[in-house]
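Q: Convert this sequence to structure tokens.
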Amino acid sequence: MRKRTGKVFFSVSSSTSSFSFFFLCLGIFFCMEMARAQNRKTVPINVGVVMDMDEWVGKMGLSCISMALSDFYSSDHGSDYKTRLVLHTRDSKRDVVAAAAAALDLLKSVEVETIIGPLSSMQADFIIGLGEKSQVPIISFSATSPSLSSFRSPYFIRATQNDSSQVKTISSIIQSFGWREVVPIYVDNQFGEGIIPFLADALEKINARIPYRSVIPEFATDDHIKYELSKLMSMQTRVFVVHMTTSLGTKLFTKAKELGMMGEGYVWIITDAMANGLTSVDSSAIEAMQGVIGVKPYVPRTKQLENFTTRWKLKFQQENPTILNAELNVFGLWAYDSATALAMAVERSRITGAPFRKPNVSGNATDLEAFGVSKDGPKLLQAILNITFKGLSGDFQIVEGQLQSPAYQIINVFGNGAKGIGFWTRENGIVKELNLRNTNNVYSISKANFGSIIWPGDTTFVPKGWVIPTNGKKLRIGVPVKDGFSEFVKVTTDFTTNTTTVTGYCIDVFDAVMAALPYYVPYEYVPFAAPGKFTESYDDLIYQVFLGNFDAVAGDTTIVSNRSQYVDFTLPYTESGVTMMVPIKDDNSDSAWVFLKPLTWELWLTSFCSFVFIGFVIWLLEHRVNEDFRGPPSHQVGMIFWFAFSTMVFAQKEKIVSNLARFVLVIWFLVVLILTSSYTASLTSMLTVEKLQPTVRDIKELQKNKEYVGYLQGSFVPGLLRKMNFDEDRLREYSNPEECVDLLSKGSANGGVAAVFDEIPYVKLVLANYCSKFTTVGPTYKADGFGFVFPMGSPLVPDVSRAVLSVTESEKMVQIEKAWFGESTCSDSSTSLSSNSLGLASFWGLFVIAAVAAILALLIFLTKFMHEYWHIIKRTNLSLRERVRILARKFDRKDYSCHTFKKSELREAMRDSACMDCSQSPHDNLSMLSSPRTNGPPSPSISSYTEQSFHFPGEVGTPPLHEENVAVSTQESVIELAVDLSAGH
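A:
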């Protein structure tokens, strides 16, 4: 019994312990859950949302913001956040005042930490001011106007693209196709006007102009749109840039199609305001927009984006069952990324949603003064600006208060939607395929980088961008009325029909230039003069452009600095410069010394010296071997001059026997032949051709003699002459070529002028008919030629200047010049007036050749002579004077070794020697030859005579040889013969 009782007790005790343990675990678990719940308690952060709830963008934006917060806080990363955004939505009702009231209510009543919205730039302008006052960040994903700037309002954050960032893309498209005029069409509000200054600047950089701005009211009626489009049809420009909301833009294109403005020849470019919303446009509007070009920020296609798009369509269709086939666009993506960035920034800034600081205001303060200032606003603003992440729209990064975009996509509306035809980046310009990692920074705007484009009218041909307008305004082109020089400009008035005809060289050039422009410019010529009168001053004519009476001036207007102070000139189309024209006279009349003019004095002097030098060289080479070059000194000097100058006419009779002399003469005859032939030709030209020379050589001669000078009436030349210090009373004007010729013909002393100063085109026109009477002399004074005149800063000037270059470099310019000036039959006056005298520069090469040949022959001769008598030169017991004297005597003697003396001279020498002393024996003769001494011992025979036994004059045992004893005698001859014998001769 005890045992059983004990067992029962033990069993009951075990059961009680198990229940106690269970309840203990349950209590512990409950406490842990309570702790976790306490830790998971979140801080709500109030966020205001102000949008047009009836607008498509408003509904899409609010839906994307809600999904962004749901996706973020359900993610692994966002679930741990201690803060939660609580949305407070307000409807702005498409009204600026309603949007401001909604924002004011959120700031005052809810004390929101930030406001997302509003949609339009006009609504945002006032709300940004409220945010700055309350230090609450205002985040807008659709307010794109450049007038809204974070620099002026630091609490404004633009989570979208600034409209000004797309103007570079638009200007690159325009530059690629070479369009030069563009008409912007924009809505008349802050959003539309904000882009225009930036667009105008971008177009100006590519030399494109805006001739007209078409402004459409925000709530324009169909009739108003048609009226404005009809005005555009009457103009010449066919390139339009449309910047307006999608709703107004679709109305515009629908009416444009009805008026036929969506046909061939038109170019329509839409900004991203419409390009981003094409997905929400109905099919009828897309049909009207066929061929339109558009630009929009590039959004990369990712799996995350595709997944979100699918989920959004399903959710949006459930929330808005009446809206069918809704399509998400980039504004929804920016709304999604903005909400995500805000959620991240709120957590990072560690704000707690503290109450606003209340202002110290009186009881009767207005609502704008009554709301407080956020304590957490500055921290939240900095956190938002520092947020960077990979969003649905791409890289989300706020720089200088606005979202940055790496590229723009260029689209072409075709078929049921739009297709991409290229991209634009800051680094590479227009590219066909986008590669954001491309390191090649080559900027290109080539139209070859575009894909295939279908233009309005279903054509692939690029429109030229302009047409001849139906009622466009014509430019008033002022032209001068001239009395003379009608070849340049001629104005003819038919008083019976009251019509005016303008012709001339300048007019034809202007017509050709305007026809070469890449667009049509209508114009008409307006003469500047009273009926029956002439234009007195070209300065007055050009000044009319500055006054606005003329749109341009076409004529013989010269580009000078003082005129360029108030007008702009195109590039010149004529030769530039001012030159002096004077009469010419025959310079050959009554000239007794004309035979000296064929050669310059340098050439005359060089020729004379060369003749004397060659004659002297020939004498040196021939003196020892040629009997004709021997004789008394006077005869030999005369022979040098006679022989040298007789070669000029090849009249020399002396026979040349030395080969070296013959070599020199061959070269010299060539020089003489060329020199005499050139002299004869030059002299013949001078005697047979009329030699014309100017009556005045330079301007100093005019000023020195106080001569009268002439100038063309109405030109700028008088001012130039005054700067040259010409007296005012010495200037005489003329108005036509006939007066100019008459003044020059009379001369300064007979009521005319000594010279005329005029521009080169006028001077050439006069010389074309009077080249035998007048010529140009002196320097050409700088002037920039004729140019066309336009108002200061006119956008036409660059285009017209380029057209001037195109015309002047073409055959067209040659045809115009031939048509008005013909072909001149006069030779170049500068050639006839240049000196015909032959100078040393033309012949110095010949003289060098002759001199080298003569010197070479002379060196060879002297070398042989020195070698022959080297035994005399090397004698150290003779003074230099004695050696020179003996060598001179040796040179003066005949060279019996020469073939000319070998026979005849040897016989004569033997005969003379035998007759000298017939009483002497041969032995006596030999003794005489052996020594000059008469009282010495007998000398050895000639055959045994050596140089060592012979004593020269001046040696020991030999009487000195004095100057007075150096006469031509038998004794000296014997000494010289002994020297020769000692040398082995």
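The mean pLDDT is 80.
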